[in-house]
C-alpha cells in the first residue's frame, strides 16, 4: 500500500493516556506508534505522540488503604466530580499544546472517560479520529468500574458523545462499531481495526526446549497455557479446573500460566496436591520481550473467557506463534478466528464444551499443527501492526476529507 495523503495534511498527533507498562494496551500503543510513524515518514507527514509519563513499577492487585478509600468515595458521586475537574484541567493544558503546535488532525485512544482532547480540539476546529476499545462506561458497572455516577455523566462520557466530537472512528471489534453506526447521521467514517502482532518477534520457530527442560517436563507432555491478566471475567479458574480433569483422566498435560500474581488464583493452586503442583508453572509478570519464548513452550493456547466486544491481544500472539487456540465463541473472536480452521471455539457459558475442545486437542497432535499453521497464515495476511496502521491511515484520510466537506457546506 502506497499512502497518498491530502496535500494539506502536514502534522498528525496521536494522543493517548496509557501509563501502565504491563497491560495489553501498552503493547498496542507502542506497536501502533512504531508502525504508524513509519507510514507518516514515508508520506512526509510530521507525527507527534502526546502521552503521560510511563510508570516504571509493575502494578499489584493488593487492596491498599487508598484503593479502599477511593472505592468508598466513588459510591457518593465524588469520583465523577474529581474526574470532571481533572478533565477540564487537562483540556486547558492540551489546548495550550495545540495552540503551540497546531496539528492538522489528532488521533486519540478513548478510554471511556478521556474527553479532554476532544474538548480542546473541538474549541479550535481541529478534527479528531477516535479509537474506541471498549463499550460505554455505564455498561462496565459491576466489573472494575463499580461506582455511583452522576446521573448525566454516563451520557457525557458515552462512546456516542465522544464520536459526536470526532470526524471518524476506529473500533477493535464490530460489536463496538455497531452502536456508533446508529448515532452517525452525518456518515462519518467508521473502521473496524482489529489488534495486531509483530510476526517477526512472535513466530513458530522459537525453540522452547530449554524452558521445558528447566521445568522437567518430558517431551510427550502436552502443555496447555494462558497469557494475560487473571481478573475474574477472564475465568482463570475454568482453565485450572479443566486441566485438573484432564490430569484425572490420565492425560499427560502441564499448565503454564503467564501473568502477574492474583490472590484467588494463588489460593486455588495452593490447594493442589504436591504431586500435581510440579505440573504447573506460573511465571508471574514477564516483560513483553520474554513472552514469545514462553508461548513457544505451549502446545495449546487458551482464552478461557472474554467479553463479546473484546479483541484480546493475546489471541493474535497465540496465532502468530502457530499455536492451537481454544477460545470462546464470541462475536469479537469470530472476527479474527474461524472455528475448525484456525482454532476451536466453545460455548462461553458451557464448561463442558471448553473441556471437550481441550481434550480433543490433547488427543490429536496433527489437528494442533493444522490449526496452528492456519492461524499463523491468517495473521500474516491480515493482522500485523503494519496492517493495523494502514487501516488507521485510510480512516484518517477519509476523516480529513469528511471534515473539509463539512466545512464547505
From TrEMBL:
- Identify the InterPro entries for this entry: Glyco_trans_4-like_N (IPR028098), Glycosyltransferase_grp1 (IPR050194)
Q: Where is the Glycosyltransferase subfamily 4-like N-terminal domain?
A: 23-201
- Indicate yes or no for the key word Transferase: yes
For this UniProt entry, the molecular function terms from Gene Ontology, in alphabetical order, are: glycosyltransferase activity
What top-level branch of life does the organism fall under? Bacteria
Q: Which UniProt keywords apply?
A: Transferase
What's this protein's name?
Glycosyltransferase group 1 family protein
**What phylogenetic lineage does the species belong to?**
Bacteria, Pseudomonadati, Pseudomonadota, Hydrogenophilia, Hydrogenophilales
